[in-house]
Predict the 3D structure of the following.
Amino acid sequence: MMNNESLVLRVAGRPVGRYIARPELVPTLSPRPYLHPVTTLAGTAVTELSPADHLHHLGVGVAVPDVEGHNFWGGRTFVRDQGPTELDNHGAQRHAAFQLRDPDGFVEELRWVAGGAELLRERRTVAATELTDTAWALDFTFSLTNTTSGPLSIGSPATNGRPGAAYGGFFWRARKEAEPPAVFTADTEGEDAAHGTRAGWVALAGTGWTLVFAGATDRTRRDPWFVRGAEYPGVGSSLAHEERLPVPAGETVVRRVVTVVADGRLGRAEAAALVRKAVSP
């Protein structure tokens, strides 16, 4: 099922996610396409859209708080020596075209526009694959090309002076429940240990569901994880952790994250096995 505005991802005939290509959002949310709801195969929702704690958190997508000073994350901008500040600097990711639309995935072209000009052109490839009868994988690749005549750079609150806040890139806002989800990697336990690490994968395990996020290329695995559990459940891969990421004119940044979406509360060994199955070399 699909139309010009949205499409439904399916795994073995079952709907597991809706992609909104042209959302109607106010400028301060940095309008952008997103996946929501995303569900397990049993139908448990594992994303949130504009929750009360962060209205600009939009399911699953790509969000960057600082592209040459323009906010493609939404909400306030962290300003050095000033803190979170309301600025009129929001950009938008605009759907240009689908190159491919299938029940289990799509290829999309987007334009990242701010201040009346295009800064980046993105090619986004998303695929849903069955792993077991209780788990599937969302394979998400984005390629950002600088289409301006000069250099651009990508930053984060961390590179602008807020330690520990290196968010920006692929981001998944997960389901919020009465209790925070368990957080673990292959060899660590807890949010503090997982946040900022360059682990091969990181998992959130809630009530009857588990998400396991894995960098699927060598370059993606070099980006540290941004992990939240107690304040709100969310995981992202940080494009700008300690320093800004330069994108020269005409150059392209590519990242690929594969997320295992499982029913039940997985243990470490189960999570690792599903990641191995989901991430092809």
Summary: The chain has a mean pLDDT of 95. Residues 268-278 form the longest helix (11 residues). The helical segments are 191-194, 218-221, 268-278.
